[in-house]
Amino acid sequence: MSLVSVENVGFAYPGGGPVLEDVSFTVPRGANVGLVGESGSGKSTLLRLLLGLDRPDSGRILFDGAPLEAGRARYMRGYRRRVQAVFQDPYSSLNPAHRVERIVTEPLRSLKIPGDHRQMARAAIEAVGLTGDVLTRFPHQFSGGQRQRIAIARAIVSRPELVLADEAVSALDLSTRVRIVDLFREISQQVTMIFVSHDMGVVAALCDRLVVLDRGRIVEAGATADILRAPRHPYTRALLASIPRMPAAPPAPWPPTERILP
Ligand SMILES: Nc1ncnc2c1ncn2[C@@H]1O[C@H](COP(=O)(O)OP(=O)(O)OP(=O)(O)O)[C@@H](O)[C@H]1O
């Protein structure tokens, strides 16, 4: 059974036109699904629906076979324990006044999860490649990449079944982005993940399945390898063409060391 099933979902913000139209896809348990599309295609809106922050106008979302009841507080408490999120900006998503331990243990407190929270925070911090001593420090003492690791530790500390990541590497410089993508890849071995990004390169490197959105509609969905090999939709081809290509060989020395032309 799929962990998440999005069925014919439609959504519009009050007073606005449709932002999502007839969106359907499934996320099998254990999968790592990339949700990709240009700015404004509706990715973040879909994520808000998946988080239960907004409700679809039409269609429905099933989580673990049952409807996501965004309006029911009791249901949402249980849901938040099972579903966590990592957002784009590691600068604003961590409370600057709190030490890392308090930040990472926050979901454990708010969800009233029993156990040794300090020990659980230490385990989460180590799982993201940091050491226990960071727990006593404040967010401003870390780089962007380290802060994103802390945000990921907070997302996994309650041992969720699903992690939603919204542009979670977009604000990072290139080399940090590569390392955090590696970390997400490791984490995705243990949890189901939906990774939202406008960056086809990141999503193609990380996710085993892709859902491509264009102006609120799914234009292509399937195994990443299949879509990369034979993109069917012109929009997907355009997104793929926008991935920056690294030079296959180091650039030729300049000035040339040997004569090429006779
Ligand atoms: N709170 C809101 N009220 C009204 N319209 C909104 C709101 N949030 C988003 N929209 C509109 O909904 C559409 C989809 O936006 P959304 O943020 O979901 O797209 P996106 O694919 O995540 O884009 P980006 O990558 O730029 O975040 C856009 O036309 C946007 O202007």
From TrEMBL:
This is ABC transporter. InterPro entries: AAA+_ATPase (IPR003593), ABC_transp_ATP-bind (IPR050319), ABC_transporter-like_ATP-bd (IPR003439), ABC_transporter-like_CS (IPR017871), Oligopep_ABC_C (IPR013563), P-loop_NTPase (IPR027417). It comes from the Bacteria. Signal peptide: none annotated. Keywords: ATP-binding, Nucleotide-binding, Transport. GO terms for biological process: peptide transport; transmembrane transport. Residues 4-240 form the ABC transporter domain. The keyword Transport applies. It is a peripheral membrane protein. Belongs to the ABC transporter superfamily. GO terms for molecular function: ATP binding; ATP hydrolysis activity. GO terms for cellular component: plasma membrane. The keyword Lyase does not apply. It is found in: Cell inner membrane.
